[in-house]
């Protein structure tokens, strides 16, 4: 039996997203990816913005963005976007997220959501 034609790409995407999550100290179970046109991914973050949690979203055609989890059917409020390159190394994504969280922290306290230094 032959594997699904997109199996290798789907596995590579899942591994990529789980590596980003791991570097952000997020359990793999809090991440999700879907290979296909369009390929997308989601990572739930423990960091908060006001009374809502933050999330990291990825799409093959638009790259990564850091956003506030929406309430119901509303659109996520995007705090930062990194469209280029669309699929940077996981450590680059983790560093960008940490920097955005540090900049968004009230009173310069910084984020407690430090990425792994790998």
What does it look like?
There is one protein chain. The chain has 118 residues and is of the alpha+beta class. The chain has one domain (7-108). It is built from two helices and five strands, in the order H-E-E-E-E-E-H. A five-stranded antiparallel sheet has the order 1-2-3-4-5, covered by helices on one side. Helix 1 crosses helix 2 (90-104). The chain is globular, with a radius of gyration of 15 Å.
Give a quick summary of the entry.
By secondary structure, the protein is of the alpha+beta class.
List the helices and strands and how they pair.
Layout: H1 7-23, E1 31-34, E2 40-49, E3 52-59, E4 63-68, E5 77-82, H2 90-104
Antiparallel strand pairs: 1-2, 2-3, 3-4, 4-5
Helix pairs in contact: 1-2
Largest sheet: 5 strands, antiparallel
Biggest sheet strand order reads 1-2-3-4-5
Note the run of SSEs as H and E: HEEEEEH
What is the count of β-strands?
5
Mean pLDDT: 88
Helix content: 25-40%
Class derived from helix and strand content: alpha+beta
Domain count, please report it.
Answer: 1
Q: Low-confidence stretches at least 5 residues in length (pLDDT < 50)?
A: 108-118
Features:
118 residues, alpha+beta, five-stranded antiparallel β-sheet, 2 helices, 5 strands, globular, disordered C terminus
